[in-house]
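User: quick one, fold this
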Amino acid sequence: MNTSQRDEWVQELGLLFLQVRSSLALLWMHGLPKLLNYSAQLPVIKDPFHLGANVTLTQAFNVRFAGALRYA
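Assistant:
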């Protein structure tokens, strides 16, 4: 493996690390607390579309989880 190929491989590995790390951080900071404290979040979540707190919180979690997967 020459220097150019090795540099390219190191750069790709670094980008992979950053993508996986940012995905896990997003899920850990925003998605996981909502999932673990689901019943505690129900009374405090805002319901702008009047779908019900349960549906709104489920959608909020799904958006956070999908966002984390998008970065991965």
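User: anything notable?
Assistant: DSSP finds three helices and no strands in the chain.
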